[in-house]
Amino acid sequence: MITSTRRWFRRNRTNFAIGAGVLGAGYLAGQYILGKVSEARQRMSDERIAKENLRRRFEQNQEDCSYTVLAILPTATENILDAIPVEQILDELQKHKADRLARSVNTSEIASSVPPSIADDDSKSLTSTSESFIHATQAAEGSSTISGDGAEAVAPQAPKPKRTKAQLWNEMKIMAISRAFTLLYTLSLLTLLTRIQLNLLGRRNYLASVVSLASPHSQESRINLENHEDENLEHAYGNDFETNRRYLSLSWWLLHRGCIELMHKVTAAVKEVFAGVNPREEITLERLSELTLEVRKKVEGATEEERRINKWLSYLLPSPSDEEYVLYQSGMTTAATTPTSPSLRRLVDETSDLIDSPAFTHVLTLLLDAAFSHLVDNRIAQLSYKIPPTSASTARVQEIVGGDAKAKVANSLAVFCRQAHNIGSGANNEYLAAIEQVKDLEAFAAVVYSSNFEFEAPNASGNEENVGGAESTRVSRLSTAGAVGAPGPETYAEVVGKGEGFDGGDNGFEDAWGKALAKEGEKEEKEEGL
């Protein structure tokens, strides 16, 4: 029995060896597959965590943008209101009305108590007396003293010529419309500038956090009295508090200088378009919309090519020669000759490139469309033309009813004056809410936040330290993984997730934005087809 069993094993030993080899190979292959599956699951988990982290950071960043705009907008509003004092024109018109009423009342009382011939003489004398009183008052106001003791005085200035009522109304027409339009442009530009600034800083801070997580701690066992490794990494990736403060303070230019330069351009366009409009004239809402569109064409450009070559950079950021002055005026430096750091220079250069890009002009046009539509189609229509708000079910009815509605231009001017304060309000700003409803604004911010990760790598710049090739590769992989979850419309998130166009080259942002628009167009075509 035992001998036969041995002979059987001896005859089949080759089969047993082959079977054992097959089983061993199968076991090893199974373990290899299980390891790869585990690695894939871990990688997917890491990418999902990175996506959620980036999504939370991005959403918080957009909320910070809204709060920042509301916080600094009143500064620009105050400067614009001081530069276009519509209330002074209103006071002069009210004085004209009060003087006219006073003269009519006095003339009627005198005429009822004396003969007509005497009444005429007294009326003339009353008029001459009031005029002489006005001239005397103006002369008294024009005289002033230089020193407090009155020893040295300035000669009385010549009285300003008294403007007629028609001149005042025409001036108020130009000033009221120009002020409202200037505030709309300022709000839209400030919103875009703030989105660019905070998203650029948010991207850099996110990358700094990724670097801190990805950096190896191989020297933990070594005792270092001074460890500057983390500090060097943060400065290399731009996570420098002082640099960030100086970079954000550059918005001082738009709040104090850019808005005033923009005001002159808008006022010139309003004068040219509304010059022939009489404040007593009755016009339709459609006519007012056409006039508003003409003003926008003169400010922004009548064609797509004109809008593309129309640059807004001079209104948003100071020239390199004025940067030191702006930093000094905003309190960031104590001397007007402090040089700009390389990190700040790189931030400003990238911001300038974004502002000069066609994508910026495209998004700005959409924001202005929403802002002007809210002013003219909603507020002016409701408050001046008494047209109820339109809804999806009554849009056609309101179009027919409100199409022939007319209102005096003077009534619309009153609405323009009141809405100017609402446009520049720092709390419960309905115009900012209307602007933020534009989906391309969030998409633009998502592309800015998620693009050019490679450009931020320390080894991309020759004057900064290289944290190591292996670590840079890992940072790039984690950054791209985090960019998968960039918020906004799904089409933009898909482009960002694939990492297409974000190679840090000169055309990285434009390639990403172009592909995002292409994806959005395909989505709209599919929806229309359904």
What is the number of helical segments per DSSP (H or I, 4+ residues)?
21
* Distance from first to last alpha carbon: 80 Å
Number of strands: 4
- Roughly what fraction of the amino acids lie in strands? under 5%
- The computed structural class is mainly alpha
Percent of residues in helices = over 70%
Biggest sheet, spatial arrangement of strands: 1-2
Largest sheet: 2 strands, antiparallel
Average pLDDT across residues?
75
Low-confidence stretches are 113-155, 218-238, 392-398, 457-506
Shape summary: elongated
Protein name: Peroxin-3
Keywords: Membrane, Transmembrane, Transmembrane helix
Pfam families: Peroxin-3
GO molecular function, one term: protein-macromolecule adaptor activity
Blueprint of the fold:
Blueprint: H1 2-11, H2 13-83, H3 86-113, H4 116-142, E1 144-145, E2 153-154, H5 165-214, H6 229-236, H7 241-249, H8 252-274, E3 282-284, H9 285-300, H10 304-309, H11 313-316, H12 323-329, H13 342-355, H14 358-383, H15 395-402, E4 406-408, H16 409-423, H17 430-436, H18 439-450, H19 469-483, H20 490-498, H21 508-529
Antiparallel strand pairs: 1-2, 3-4
Helix pairs in contact: 2-5, 2-8, 2-19, 3-4, 3-5, 5-6, 5-8, 5-13, 5-14, 5-16, 5-18, 5-19, 7-13, 8-9, 9-14, 14-16, 14-17, 18-21, 19-20, 20-21
Describe it.
This protein has 530 residues and is mainly alpha-helical. It has a domain at 74-89 and 166-214 and 231-439. It has 21 helices and 4 strands. The strands form 2 sheets. A two-stranded antiparallel sheet has the order 1-2. It has a two-stranded antiparallel ribbon with strand order 3-4. A hairpin with a 7-residue loop joins strand 1 (144-145) and strand 2 (153-154). The longest helix has 71 residues, at 13-83. Residues 113-155, 218-238, 392-398 and 457-506 have low confidence and may be disordered. InterPro entries: Peroxin-3. Keywords: Membrane, Transmembrane, Transmembrane helix. Residues 137-162, 492-530 are annotated as: Disordered. One of its GO terms (cellular component) is peroxisomal membrane.
